[in-house]
What does this fold into?
Amino acid sequence: MRVKSVEQVLASAESAGNGRLRRDQGWFDLIVTGVGMVLGTGIFVFTGQVAKQMAGPSVAVSFVLAAAVCACAALSYAELASALPVAGSAYTFTYATLGELAAWVIGWALMLELTLSACVVAVGWSGYLQSLMDTAGIHLPAAVRGGEGSVMNLPAMLLILLLVALLIRGGTVSKGATRALVAVKVAVVLFVIVVGAFFVDASNYSPFIPPSAPAETATGMHTPLLQSLLPGTTSAFGITGVITAAAMVFVAYIGFDVVATSAEETRRPQRDLPIGLLGSLAIVTVLYVVVSLVLTGMQSYGRLSVDAPVAEAFKAVGHPMVGAVISVGVVVGLVTVCMVSIRGQSRVLLAMSRDRLLPPAFAAVHPRYATPHRSLIALGVVMTLLSGFVDIGVLADLVNIGTLFAFMLVSAGVVILRRTRPALPRPFRVPLVPLLPGISFAACLYLMVNLSLLTWLTFLVWLGAGLLLYAVYGRRRSAFARPVTTPAPQVADRDDPTPRVAVGSAAGTVVKGDI
It folds into this structure.
């Protein structure tokens, strides 16, 4: 239950013995990072799937509801990131509010989320790329294409290696590449919106909220946890369907929290981080809502394709070539998602290594490029092997549960830090505390219990392995586990001017009032 004081969180970055990250990110770079991570294939695939099976044209309302809940979590991230502008995101915030064990658990969950996210996206990117290559008459050998009957997925492995090399180089090179890739992705989405708007038929919006009907339910280990605990008939369409669809499309917003991992590299974190978090969420929300309105206006929701709704909708109005443009956009867009995932994961690993919960060698920062090169190399090796040789499709849902778990703890952390450190300078403050963090916590918990039993079982196994590693390695080697023999100084806290005895450690000082 060792809690890292706010002052020590800030000091750990400023006095990092293995080098400091370069502060070269502005609010625009953070928005690009957020949009690059969130805006993926979901906008082209997920929209049609949910509209056809759950909400109809009112899927646009579902996106707005999901964005509102997501904004509550984004506000919590913005407050903590502006007060604690240090690498590590939810891991760092949790360490300063709930303590070391909770921080380890959330860091371990984030490692699962971001690692699998990068691998899943790399494999998906490989499939889209090879589809375009096949269309052009270029065919890779079956042994290296990935999938059934293949030895490895060579394109996915090469993508991971290329992005790791680019991220190690850092600076203007990686920033320029990210901006260019995100610009192409957004341009493709805008192209779909503008061209599709000419084929919108207002009659397809009627009824905007289709009447309720029984929904298909999963069975076996794919049954949602909530359904197994409270069995009953789920409803599609109607008001219930709109709300259920909001829970389903919530996962399309997952990824904006990666912006917070750049806190230590932001020039003016107190101002730029809230702008980056909320700005990227606002941009993506507008794009999701407009695309969903255009799609359901082009084709009746009952005739939408589940696998490729946008491409099929354009085929239905006599413009099949638009599908090729969309495929190019998807290939480019997935590169940015993969790149941002790897970058965010390396910062979490850096923060945990600084605290010696993981080997401190991973905390090293390159003397020239000011990037966590050892963390990136280690992650590159693991991700390359996973994406090249492991069928990770069944683990994709773990990305969602790990993210939702982080959202819950960050929301709780805002309320806790308000109570334990009320006078702490907060450049950005969440309004209506504890109401908005409470809404975020409850909504994320609801979404988690709607994930399958298989996802929960795998997640608990992963957490069990992490707790075992913490018990064997991190608990004793933690920077807080080594007492100092020098007399403990008297420390005064700005929230409480009364001097208190501090508990010393090799990493710094922890005020007893913060434990």
About this structure: Strands lie at 213-214, 235-236, 490-493, 496-505, 508-511. The chain is about 60% helix and 5% strand.
